[in-house]
Every structure is written in C-alpha cells, then in structure tokens.
C-alpha cells in the first residue's frame, strides 16, 4: 500500500483503524490540499465554521438519515479517549450514578476516565492511582463461552445483595478489537440492549476501532439491529489519519451546559474537510458493497486455508477485521516471529489479545483485491512455516 | 488577520494559543502541502518516521540544546489533556504516591485525570464522579496576594497533622491563562522549585497555553531560571492548529514500559511536519526579538491608555498574553458587551478568569504592528465607551 | 429464655449471635460482678492489665494451642466493624495493594471500610459516597449454584484482561448469616484457600457471627480444615453481650507500627473478664458436644417436620445456625407475619437474606433441649398455619 | 485514683476522657451491679428496653431540655468512630454531596470514613488506600495563628476556581485534644457556624473527648453559644468506661431509613444503665460548679507555676483539659522522660500533639482537690528538673 525507503508494503493494519480509506486517499487528499491552499480556516475551537457545517450536513444526510438515527453530534476533542471521557461524563450526569459497567477484554482509552473502563492490567497499572467507578462484566468469550453472560449481568443488577451498584451506563465494543477480535453476536447485543432498557441504563457503543465501515456497515451495531443511546467514534472518521472524534447522543440526552466539556482541538477544520470528503467517497465507490465481497473472500480464505493448518487455530471476525487466534496453536514467542516474517515479506500486520497471540487483519477497506490476496498468502505462509517448525521441535 | 464572509478581523485570541504563528502561516503551510502532495505518510502511530525524526532533531537542536535542557520527548497523544494525563501518570508511577498538588485558579484539561487538577467548579461538576487524588493550593493572587502561599505550601508538607498527603508532583502554570492571566513571579517559581527539591516532589510545568514563545521565551519557565522535571506542551507546538502535544521529562524519569501509555493519534505526521517548520520559522524571523518589542508596546499601551480609564482596572501579563481585569471596574454583564462591541468593530478577543471578567489579549506572535495597534485601539474604545455608560448609570 | 413485663420468651436469635452462652449466664455474670465489686480496673486502653493477661492466656491455652494455631491477637476496638476495618487495613498494608475481594451476599459491617465489603445495596446507598477498592465475587448460592464460582475467581485473577486488579485479600464468611444462612462447603473453602496461596492473596475469615462455637467448633473454618491468614471475631467473644472484638493474624503478618490503629475502647476490662470466663465455661460444660447433639435434633426436625410443608422450602445450616428459606414458599409479606405469630407464641426469631425471606434459627448454644423443642414446634406451627392460609388464598 | 500491684497513682489521663466521673465511681457502679444481679437484659440490639428508655428520658430531661436543644438521639454503635461514621453518612445523605471539610490537627477516628477526616499522617498511612472526600482546612493554631482561617474558609467556598468542592458538612472539635489541646475561640466557632449557615453546610461537632463536662459545661460548644446540626459523643457518656456512643441530630435531619446504619452493639444495656446513673450523679454533686473551681486552680497553677519555668512553654486549655506545650522548651526526647518521671512519682499523664510534645492534663472531673494539687506538683517538678538539666547541657 505504501513504501518507505523504496520498499513496498501491504498494509493489514491501516493505522490501527485510522486509515479505512487507505493511505493518502487521493479524493480526500485533494480536498484537504485545496482547502489549505485556499487559506481555509484551520483552527476553529468550537465555533461554527463552513467546514464544520459541511461535515455535519454530510454526516446527517449520508449517515444518520438513511439509518433513521436521531443523534446529536458532539465534537469532544480529537482523540477516541476524549470522546469516551465525554460519553462517560454525560452518562453519569444524566443518570446521577457514578458507576459504569465495562466488559472484560474491553479497551476504551488511556486517560484516567477511559482507562478505568479498560480491562488490560498492564495499562491499568500505569495509572498510579486506584481506578474507580467501573465494574467489569464477563464478555461471551473463552472461559465465558459456556456461560450465560447476559443472565449474569441481569442477576447482578437484580440481586439486592450483589454488592455491585447500579450503573449509569454500560459501555461495549461490538467487536473487542484490542481484546483479540472477539465478536459479540447480534442476539447478545440485543439482549444487552433489553437489559439496559429494563434497568434504565444507558448503552454506550464504542465504535472507535470497528466503526466507519470496518465491519461492512457504517456502524458496527447496525448489524445487530440495535440503537445505542450514545456512540463514540474516532480513528477513521476524518478519513485521512487526522485526529478527530465524535460523540453521538440521542437528542433527549443532550443536557450539557455550555463549556462543561471543552478543549482546544475540538474544531480542527482539516479533519472536518477530510471527514466530509470521506463520507462522499464512501458512497461514490459503494464501499459497503466492496467490503461485503472482500469479507467473503477473507472469511473463506481463513476458514479454508488457515484454520486447517492446526486444530488449535481459531478464526474470528466480520467485514474487514479478522483475528487469527494462535493461542492454542503456537508457542507465545512464535506469534511475534510470524509477524516479523510477514514484515520481511512486505506485509504489515498487528497482534492483539491476551499475550498478543492473535494476528489482527485490518486492511484499508478499499484495498485492491490483488493486494488482499497477496497479503493473505504471505500471512498463511508465515503461519504455516512456523507450524512446521513447531511440529519438528 | 483573517476574514470570513468578506469581513476582516483582527485576532487577539489566536485559537486559544494554538495559532502563535498566525493563521495559515505560509512557511508552515507550504511545508505541509508539499508533504501531503508528495504522499508523505500521514499516520504513523508511535513508529519512527522521517517526519518524526526531523521534528525531533529540530526540537533538540533549536530548542533543547541552546537552553541546555536534557529532556526526553514523549508523544502522548494530540491534545493537551492527553499530555497532562500522561505526565500525572508518570509522576505517580515514579514516586509511588497517588496525590498531586494543583493550584487554585489552575486549568489543566477535561479528561478525568486532568479535570481532577482543574479548579473550575462548573467544569468539575461535569465529571459525574467525585474527583480524587489532587489537592489545591493557594496561588499568589487576589485574596492570597497578601498571604505567603509558599510558606503555606511548606507548612502543609512539613506538618505531620496537616491531613494532606505528600504528593508525587506539583503541577503549575507560570501564568494561569484560563484563570484570568494571573502571573506567578520568578521568585515565587524559584521558591516552588526549592520546595519540590526539598520534599522530593516532581515539578510539572503546564506550558500548554503559555509555551511556544507566548511569553517571549520559548518556554515560559525560562524567565524564572527554573527547570521543571516534566513539561507538558500542546496548542501551538504544531504551528498550524493541528492537534499535537508533547511531554518532556528529565532523562532519568523515563520509566515508562512499552505500551503503558498509548493512543492512536500520537504519530500525526502533518503535525510533525508543521512543528518542525514552525521551529525553523521562529528562528528565521527572530520571533523572540519581535515579541519583546511588541510586549513593550502592549504593556505601555495598557498601563498608559487603558488602566487610567478606571481605578478598578488591573493589568497583568507578559510577552503577548495580557489580561485586563475588569472585575472591579464594570458590572459583570458589561464584559460580554465590551467583547461584542470589539467583535462588531472587527476584533476577536476572549474572556477568562472568575466570572469571565478578564479580557484576554493573545494575538499571534507575528502579528503586524499596525494590526496590533489597531486592535488595542478598538479594545480601548470599547472599554472606554462602556466606562462612560457605567458612570452615567 | 428471658422475660420482660412478665412474659416468657424462647430466644432463637441470641442477640444476633452475641449471646451464644445465653442471657446473663450465671458463671460469666458472677465473674463480672465480682470483678466490679472488687473495684477491678474497668478501662485500660491498650495497656497490659491483669484482666487482659488472663483473657489472653486462656485464649491461647483453651483455643489456639489445642488447634495448633499460631495467631497473634489484636484488640482492634469493641465492634465487629472495627475488627474488619483493622483487618482490611493490615492486609492492604502487607500486600501494598488497595483492592480486596468480597462475596455477593456478604456482610462485614457499616463503617466505610467494612461497608465497602458489604453487598447489601440498601446499606451501601447509605454511604453517601461511592464505595471503592472492593470487588464482589459470586458466592456458590442461588443463581450461582450451577456455576463454578472458584473457576470464575481463578479466571478473573489469571486473565490479564479481566479489568479486575489483584487484591491484597479475600474476605469471606464460611456461612453468610445476614445473607440468608448460606453455607459454603468445605471443599469450596479449601479451593478458596488454594487460590489465595497460588496468587499470594491473604484469606480473611469473618467469624463475627458464626464463630465462638456457633457452628459446633469454636471457629467455623475448622470444619473445612483450612487456616485463614487473618480472622475477625466479635459478638459472643465477651460472652455476656459486652462489646468486644478481636483480630487474629498469623505471627509473621503483624507489621503494625505503634498507634497505627488505635481507639479508646480497645481495653474494656469487663469484656476481658467475661471473655475469659466464657472460654472456661465452654470447656466446663463440653459445649461442643452439646451443640453436636442439638444440631442433630434441629437438622432432623427441619428436614422432617418443616421442609415437607411446602416443596419451595429450603433448609440450610450447621451447628446451631439454621435458615428456613421461604422465598419460593410464601408471599414476601408472609415471612414477617410468621415472625410475628412466633413472637405472640413466645418465640423470638429473626429474618435474614434477600427480601428478609429466610427465618434464621440461632438460639443460645446452651439452650435447654426442652426449650429448643418447644421453639421448633412454635416455628413449625407458624409456618404451617401460614402455608394453609397461602393455599386457601 | 487507683492502684495496681499495691502502688497508688494519681490519674491525669482518665482513660483518654472515658472516665470523667472517676474510676469505678461508686454511684454508677452500684447501679450497674444491681442491674446485672437482677438479671437485667444486657444485650438489646436496637430494640426498646427499660434501660434504654430510662437513659433517654434522663438525657432529655437533664441535658437537652435545660439547654433548649431539640436533638434526636441515635445509638450508632459503641465507639466514637462508629458515631463519626454515622454522622458523616447522614450529612452526605442529607446534602447529597460527597465532600466533607475537616481541620488540620483534627482527630476523628480510625475506621475508613473517620480516618479520612483525621489529619495525623502516620495514622492515615495505615489505611492502605488513598483517603477521599475530605478536605482539610487550617485551624487557628501555630502557623495559622496570624492568619484569618475563617476568611480562608469563606474564600475557598466562594471562589468558583478554588478547586474545592462544596462540602455536605464541616466537622470540628472545639478543642483539638489529640492535636495538642488546641482551643478554638468562641468567636471563631461562631464565625464557623455563620459560614455553615450561609453556604448551607451542616456543622458537626465532635464532642467525643471534650464533651460530657470535660470543659466545664456538658457540651463544650455551649460556651460559644452555638448549636451544631449534628453532635457525636462517646467516651464518658456511659460513665463507667463501658463502650457507648451517640449521634445527636436536629430533628429535621433524621432521614435515616430503617436499618441503614446498624450494628450489633448499639444496645449495650449496661452502658445505658451507667449513662443514666452518670447523668444523675453529675447533678447530684453539682459537677459543673466543681469543675469551675478546679479549672480556676489549674489555670492559675499552670500560668503562675509552670509557664514561668521557660519562655518557650505554652499553656492552653479549658475546664479540666489542659495542655502544656513544650515544643519550644525542651528537646523532643525530653517530653517522654518527663512523662516517665511523673509515672515514677505516681502520676499518670499522657502526651498529645505534633511529635507528642504536649503534656495533656485530663483528670477525672470529680478528682479530689488534694490529689489535683499533688498531681500538679509532681508535674511541675518533673518539668522543672528537666529544665535545669536542659540548661546545664
């Protein structure tokens, strides 16, 4: 996809999901360059500007209206963690309850409020203070696959002696990306929505890594037919790797007072320009259709070409985010070796999950089929050659 | 400085300090446009890239070496609050103490960790949870002007029955910008540094709003002759209103483990390109010299032309950040009216401080003298006309 | 057992477990009266006194030595919650970790530290602040009976992404008395001890309600063959309803510094006198043997005479603490009616558990068989007559 | 006052204030012995009993009515810290604010909620967790004597940027006993009451050590002519060194729900019997008059005989609680030596304050004049002989 020092690489990482439309997408790039060259305002704080208005109009027309979603848009700062912080604040303010539920395996950011909702122990220890006001619930994965996690959630909320205080909100990723590409089923998400409704709890969907078309649809939660109360987005929303994030909230939830959550970089105009262009670009090339066919290819390839390499290999994913879980297939150190072999062969791929033992496939959504196929081949070869080595030893 | 819908405005706000080199500075702009057009990498996470290396080299050569500062650079995410969060984490991790001291009037950000160190009550109430692990100390201003705030600090640390636990760090702004352009004296900052040394406490200097040359020197703390242990920077560091922030730490303090504080947008390459260009631009036009002469002008103007308008008016500032404190000179509602009159006359000026009763003058550092003079005149007229009205009533 | 206004009552409550040796036990009473009449010191803070020394010697000789337990004794204040607070402090200080695990259904006291470990939601809401640093784990009861709670605990501790920080200690009741007389099995307690050992976590056993012979043996945990690291005792330890509590800790865990946990009433001499007398009294009448035969009687009676009254009735208990769980057998309001009918018939019995739907049988350990039988009969009749009523309606 | 191993001692400590009516007061003792011998109920939880009713009637008639105080009485558990915990809970519940203010030098107990309000650093470090929701304010003593602490308090509450959140309550000792017998003036307490009224904050008076007549009047706050919203009492309330504590609250503040703050030992009947007897005893011997004359004696003695020994000696106190502050008069180690010399001469005296450098005189209120004089003489000699030694060296 891009080259450095002359060498060509296929990118199966896409800037941790910030480059869903590819590196330096020409359509978006031209719009940004034009804007800069025309001396468009670059920095606008939270004031209304032309670029902001155009983005908002495009977002409403192209994204919200077709999906019959009645969200208000908050620009909470340029990073995902800013958006998560803002969403948690809002939820606590609305419900007047300090507690929030998050899920084991979940990742929501590194500033103190978001970190409290992040499950990774190493990251939590970096806080230097005990992290409070978030309780972790089991996610339907691994140890909990044979366990009714929704019944557990319901029990904990209903039992007057659970010791767990009623939360303002439950924050969830439909696919735990950092957690190892762990996919929540549609029925599970629907059940979660019902529990929230029953107990007067807000459902916050963290779409930072899996939104913006990554799973096929623009929002990942669409596929489950649910509507979260609050949505946080970032990464690819600007379409060009420019920092930008959004909080979407149901209209009736907007109880912010002026200046209650502010910040300098909430009005980065280049991001608005890029974001509007990206939304146009999506429609222009029928990105959803393209992802659907590529998903089909990757799914088949992984099931038919990769999974059979070892009985311990597990394949999980949707759209163009896939995880090859090697936990039970290779030694812990081998995953990094596979990753490095891929790199030497010209493929960038990242790891995720406990002990970083899941290879995460996350190419730009508009990757050419030829490159996608070539990347898959490199990946398979790297795993395969390692399997042989494993067996020999 | 810039126009919208045809109307020309003089900007005394500079994007809350994010546009110290002016709107759409040509030198920086060209470098960014060239970079984009040459399809330079835009998004690099925390990997080493050409743009990053060039920024770091320039920063070391142009900023750190001439000042004999031995700081390591951490890219903690694009916003000031990300940098503050990172600095607080690091300090707590180093000293193994959860407590941090901040100052009354201080502003450090809106995510949970930074918000805990922010004194503004309205913003704090937005948290939805009690804010912990930060204790507020008196800042030498207003009620505390006749009070030995350093002696208080020393007492609280020394008294075994103060009830206040020893902090890992003290975070301070040399000038509390949001707090109403409240300037700490050099001797006070030196005393603070001594207290930190004596009690084994880290000194964190928040240069987000007053760094990058705003006070004349690159770092505002230089003028006091002190060296903080940790410095947080943002706003104008990218030189083009692009989100970017830095944490500088004394080399021996870098005890981060890999991945302990991460984030998607720590490697926004356009920001690196802009930031390197900005540092070159500074030197090229001798910005420090230019600010010195403009400071002289503004100081004289305010003292001689504005202060005499009313005995209650107070003037505070340094470099090109100045506050006209009208708290005791006009009715609370009048400040907003003055601000609006300025706007109608083509001048953008922001308010700050308790009850927003301080007019904050913060033009781009490279503002043309003619515009600076014209802006001052508009400002004076607006205050003046309001004074008359006041007197009549 | 005692009378008021002339009416005789059989007591199946025993002062919430504070009167295991009966009301106004003559043996203990005489010792206390003699002590007072001889002008023995009544108040001794934490100084060494004759009464304290005699209690400690008796406790070591009669309780610890025969059980080969090497505990140091701390007098942490007169109430159970003081002892729990002290135990939690000590555990956190030893392990340098703020977190503690407690169990759903558990009750450990009402001061802030203990309340954090108490699961009852209504009690928790009384705190007025969010309660921190305690995470609740499932207890093998009700919803969790078909669930491997130890495997859950092990998973949460082992999973690097559980979001749950490693605790300093796990605090447990062998029988959750307030929680509805919920009995943990010996194998479960052994598994818990193994998990604590494996993960370097202290095991705190809260014997406040079920210690002092209530379950047959002096300590309730003896029957599972485990040795907790820390034990908290109160209620019947003084033998006469006088406030007193103890913290027992393995010798090597005593890292208290002088005065680090103090209080005025840690040296109530009447309590020491009563406590020493109570320990003598226990041996003198072979209390353990007596409880064993009464347990046999109550168990049979409940299984054969009460349980058959309704298929929803559940019987749980050990020694002389038994719960008749009517949750699925009668309407919620009916339990209080049964309790009142008992009272009218001369039997005092308390309720416990979720919705107070468990009748808790907890007579003095030295109750005469005749009264025990009579009390059981009253209880059975009250439940029975209510059952009929239920059925008719 | 009492003897051990044959040796007679004069007691200037009075069980840390728990023995205001002397050791083994005959009047109280006989009532308790009679009660026990008549097989009065000893343990009553929170049920209404004869002994409880008699205490409450006596308390209302003898204490509240003559002072025109309309307080409801809560039995919150037997220790002072239980009462403080209960008062803090209630205040937070009423005002729906988590924050509480306490004072530097203040001591309120050792369980987690009370410890948060205790200023002693060594005790705080024993918590093992960061202590939250309490902010410490300067008390008018030492460093703060030349500082307007009430103006500081008012400023912190009024300043929208103080960073200190509005508290539910301010908890204060009229005399900081553990803090070194530091006396708040009547005008300061009146000012504090006014600030609480102005800002809708509850005033909690901690009378645990200085109530029950210790300062001359039954409540120490009476002398300042103020009425706290909530009062916590313990120590001498039972009159016989038996654990007992009370929370008094203005009637309209009783918003407790049933069982929201409970505990096993809230109904220790021997304490009620003793407490009622103690209140009768007080009146019978005109204790207030007796204390007034003894206060006169001690004050004169200390001012005329002790203070002149060294210019650094400071004398503080009221009623029969006095502190001889030797901080600036002798070496730190000397205070313990003085205390030990007193002990050898037959006088028990305790130390308090920072570095334990204040000798605290706190005899039983009914001490015989002869013993009081003799004790003062021993004390003076011990200090004096030490002064000489100091001078020689």
TrEMBL record, chains A, B, C, D:
Biological classification of the source: Bacteria, Bacillati, Bacillota, Bacilli, Bacillales
Family: Belongs to the class-III pyridoxal-phosphate-dependent aminotransferase family.
Signal peptide as annotated in the record: none
Entries under CDD domains matching the protein: OAT_like
UniProt keyword terms in alphabetical order: Aminotransferase, Pyridoxal phosphate, Transferase
SUPFAM superfamilies cross-referenced by the UniProt entry: PLP-dependent transferases
NCBIfam families the UniProt entry points to: dat, PRK09264.1
Cofactor needs: pyridoxal 5'-phosphate
GO molecular function terms listed in the Swiss-Prot or TrEMBL record: diaminobutyrate-2-oxoglutarate transaminase activity; pyridoxal phosphate binding
InterPro entries per record: Aminotrans_3, Aminotrans_3_PPA_site, Dat, PyrdxlP-dep_Trfase, PyrdxlP-dep_Trfase_major, PyrdxlP-dep_Trfase_small
PROSITE patterns: AA_TRANSFER_CLASS_3
UniProt record, GO biological process: ectoine biosynthetic process
Protein name per UniProt: Diaminobutyrate--2-oxoglutarate transaminase
Metabolic or biological pathway: Amine and polyamine biosynthesis; ectoine biosynthesis; L-ectoine from L-aspartate 4-semialdehyde: step 1/3
Keyword Cell cycle: no
Organism: Paenibacillus algorifonticola
Enzyme class (EC, first level): transferase
EC number, UniProt record: 2.6.1.76
């Amino acid at each position: 996809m891009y080259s450095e020092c002359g060498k060509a690489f296929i990118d199966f990482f896409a800037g941790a999901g910030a480059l869903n439309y590819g590196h330096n997408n020409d359509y978006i790039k031209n719009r940004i360059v034009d804007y800069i060259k025309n001396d468009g305002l670059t920095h606008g704080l939270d004031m209304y500007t032309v670029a902001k208005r155009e983005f908002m109009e495009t977002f409403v027309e192209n994204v919200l209206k077709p999906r019959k979603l009645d969200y208000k848009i908050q620009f909470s700062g340029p990073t995902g963690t800013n958006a998560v912080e803002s969403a948690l604040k809002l939820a606590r303010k609305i419900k007047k309850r300090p507690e929030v539920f998050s899920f084991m395996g979940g990742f929501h950011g590194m500033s103190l409020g978001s970190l409290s909702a992040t499950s990774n122990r190493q990251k939590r220890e970096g806080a230097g203070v005990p992290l409070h006001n978030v309780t972790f619930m089991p996610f339907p994965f691994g140890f909990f696959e044979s366990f009714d996690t929704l019944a557990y959630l319901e029990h904990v909320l209903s039992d007057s002696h659970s010791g767990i205080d009623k939360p303002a909100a439950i924050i969830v990723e439909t696919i735990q990306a950092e957690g190892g590409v762990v996919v929540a089923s549609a029925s599970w998400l629907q059940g979660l929505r019902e529990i929230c409704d029953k107990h007067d709890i807000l459902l916050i969907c963290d779409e930072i890594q899996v939104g913006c078309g990554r799973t096929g649809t623009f929002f990942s939660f669409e596929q489950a037919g649910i509507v979260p109360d609050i949505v946080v987005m970032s990464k690819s929303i600007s379409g060009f790797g420019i920092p930008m994030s959004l909080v979407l909230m149901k209209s009736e939830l907007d109880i912010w007072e002026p200046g209650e959550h502010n910040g300098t970089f909430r009005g980065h105009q280049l991001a608005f320009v890029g974001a509007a262009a990206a939304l146009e670009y999506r429609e222009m090339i029928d990105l959803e259709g393209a992802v659907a066919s590529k998903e089909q290819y990757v799914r088949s390839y992984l099931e038919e070409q990769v999974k059979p390499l070892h009985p311990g290999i597990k394949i999980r994913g949707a759209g163009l985010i896939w995880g090859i879980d090697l936990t039970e297939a290779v030694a812990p150190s081998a995953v990094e070796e596979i990753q490095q072999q891929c790199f030497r062969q010209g493929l960038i791929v990242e790891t995720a999950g406990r002990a970083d033992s899941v290879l995460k496939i996350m190419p730009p959504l508009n990757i050419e089929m030829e490159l996608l196929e070539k990347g898959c081949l490199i990946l398979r070869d790297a795993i395969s050659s390692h399997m042989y080595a494993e067996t020999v030893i």
